[in-house]
Design a protein that fits this description.
mainly beta, 3-stranded antiparallel sheet
Amino acid sequence: MTLTRRRVARKRRICFGCTTAHGPIQPGEVYLEHTAFPGCDNDYADAAGHPFRAGECADCATRYGRAHLLNPTTEETK
């Protein structure tokens, strides 16, 4: 199972998709956080039961068709 959430960076983060093109995700920027749990098909999570988390900048999310996930939900705008 993979979980994707919209986040706002509180510190610099590395984009898993483009480590050099965009540079790091800066504080205040919106990004997507993908979490892969053990037993997931992509084999990123390790056998010890630790989930794997990867950040994705807005440029990469747009490039890969996930830009709609960057928009705030109605709960976040309240």
